[in-house]
Design goal:
The complex is a heterodimer of chains A (244) and B (242). Chain A is of the alpha/beta class and 244 residues long. Chain A has one domain: P-loop containing nucleotide triphosphate hydrolases (Rossmann fold), CATH 3.40.50.300. Chain A contains nine helices and ten strands. In chain A, α3 (93-103) runs parallel beside α5. The radius of gyration of chain A is 18 Å and the shape is globular. Chain B has one domain. Helix content of chain B is 79%, strand content 0%. In chain B, α3 (47-75) runs parallel beside α6, α3 packs antiparallel against α7 and α6 runs antiparallel to α9. Classes of the chains: A alpha/beta (244), B mainly alpha (242). Chain A binds chain B through residues 47, 50-54, 72, 75-76, 78-91, 95, 99-100, 102-105, 129, 145-146, and chain B through 1-2, 5-6, 8-9, 12-13, 16-17, 76-78, 80-87, 238-240.
């Protein structure tokens, strides 16, 4: 079943095309990674899909709702964990979850908060103010907050940026556990992360989606030794030599 | 409900970072007490005139910390998260306003209580003037939302302090604008601060001179500034306009 259908999605700024005629279909429960160098158009794509930015042209249908015509419906079925940790700093971990549950008017608020505290192993820090948590815990809380409304589609914008290897691995396990029941679009600069977590990977450059496939398909297509080399070859058109 | 939920969060954020609130209460309170010690021979400094001045002056600090709260929220990714949620622009405006109103009421009660010790006669007019001050405070909250929406977190306190100065110099709390000159007097009459002060002072002292023009001008300002705040904030909700 198709969960996201992106049709000719385009975003133009004055002198720049941030996203150029993007066409893509994502299946329900799929984890799709968007890769690209800085300025490739990943974040703008996510902003358009989460109704934060209005497309210049094109549309996207998310679980039968258009991001142009049905913004309210889209906002109720998606959620996002932004690039920077999006938490209320002076609220405790539990209060942050309760607050965001109020934003989405979750009916069984108490149960949902308890469930997320348990699922994300946040119980031990539930009374701690969010600003006092380490980066890894803050990111964990940020993702837990993004799951408060049981989103059909979840956007994770560089979820493990700046985390140490252990915190990153723990978050990978959490993201893995979300697959199947939630369609996930993830942006990342970490090749390993995309390779391990994704069902499919899309590579963007200069606003265009230049290749899509599984990591193995992309390696094969680029005739590279590993995924990182494949990515470099695809993005640069082979202008930069592979790693030794 | 979403607005109340947002207001609860804002109250917690403000209470747990109380420096600005303390400043908004302590400084005007200090001025109220100290100017009563000087025994300045001017009607402006009589307790029944100066207390409403202090209340309006304290509202300018409400502008200052509302601006800081909004600007800090904009600066963090929290608002990015909330902008992609089903919250509407009015939920944010009500949420910020409802969070600050208890502080407004607390300020007014506290200043009148202290004024009673300095000889202000207790009457029902005190309660009436607090009631009149509440919608006036919306003007200052909306100004804070506007400043927080259009400035960065660092710049918001600087721009907010311009309002503090404007209130101090143009409201007539320290001196009558007639003393300074025609141009300055005209500026004072165009700006809302002397009008809102005259309203609160008038209700407290049962002096209803110019009440109709003061009500019309103050209400126009409150509505106009609130609408501008809503439009600007709504505009910022679209990431295109950051």
């Amino acid at each position: 079943m198709i969960s996201i259908e992106i049709k000719e999605l385009t975003k133009k700024y004055k002198n720049k095309i941030a996203v150029d005629n993007l066409n893509l279909e994502l299946n329900q429960g799929e984890l799709f990674s968007l890769l690209g160098v800085n300025g490739a158009g990943k974040s703008t794509t996510i902003k358009m899909l989460t109704c934060l930015v209005t497309p210049t042209n094109g549309d996207a249908i998310l679980n039968n709702y258009s991001i142009i015509k049905n913004k309210n419906e889209v906002k109720n079925i998606v959620n996002v964990s932004p690039q920077e940790t999006a938490i209320a700093p002076n609220l405790t971990v539990k209060e942050n979850l309760e607050f965001i549950a109020g934003v989405y008017e979750i009916k069984n608020k108490k149960d949902k908060v308890s469930e997320l505290l348990k699922e994300f192993k946040l119980n031990e820090v539930e009374k701690q103010k969010a600003k006092t948590l380490s980066g890894g815990w803050q990111r964990r809380l940020s993702i837990a907050m993004a799951l408060i409304n049981d989103p059909k589609i979840l956007f994770l914008d560089e979820p493990t940026l700046g985390l140490d290897v252990i915190a990153r691995k723990e978050l990978w396990n959490i993201i893995e556990s979300l697959k199947i029941k939630t369609t996930i679009i993830l942006t990342t600069h970490y090749m390993e992360e995309a390779e391990i977590l994704s069902d499919r990977i899309g590579i963007m450059a200069m606003g265009k989606l230049i290749d899509v496939g599984t990591s193995q398909e992309l390696i094969k297509k680029a005739k590279a030794r590993n995924f990182e080399d494949a990515f470099i070859k695809i993005v640069t058109g082979g202008d930069i030599n592979e790693s030794n | 409900m979403k607005a109340i939920n947002f207001a609860k969060r804002n109250i917690k954020e403000l209470i747990r970072d109380p420096l600005s609130i303390i400043f908004a209460i302590i400084l005007p309170l200090f001025l109220l007490v100290i100017f009563q010690q000087f025994k300045i021979p001017s009607d402006v400094y009589k307790i029944e005139n100066f207390t409403p001045g202090i209340i309006i002056f304290s509202f300018s600090f409400i502008t200052l910390f509302t601006a800081t709260l909004v600007a800090n929220d904009r600066n963090s990714s929290l608002l990015t998260r909330l902008f992609s949620s089903p919250m509407k622009p009015m939920d944010y405006i009500f949420g910020y306003t409802l969070a600050v109103l208890p502080i407004v009421i607390l300020q007014s009660i506290l200043f009148y209580t202290v004024a009673l010790f300095f000889g202000l006669s207790f009457s029902v007019n005190i309660i009436l003037s607090i009631i009149v001050a509440i919608p006036i405070s919306i003007l200052f909250i909306a100004l804070g939302i506007i400043i927080g929406t259009i400035t960065t977190a660092k710049a918001s306190s600087g721009v907010g302090s311009i309002i503090v100065q404007l209130v101090a110099f143009t409201s007539g709390m320290y001196f009558s604008s007639d003393m300074i000159g025609k141009t300055f007097n005209s500026i004072c009459k165009i700006l809302p601060f002397s009008r809102v002060l005259d309203l609160v002072k008038g209700v407290l002292n049962s002096d209803y001179t110019n009440v109709i023009s003061n009500v019309i001008i103050s209400t126009t300002y409150i509505i106009m500034v609130t609408i501008i705040a809503i439009i600007l904030f709504k505009n910022k909700m679209n990431s295109d306009n950051k």
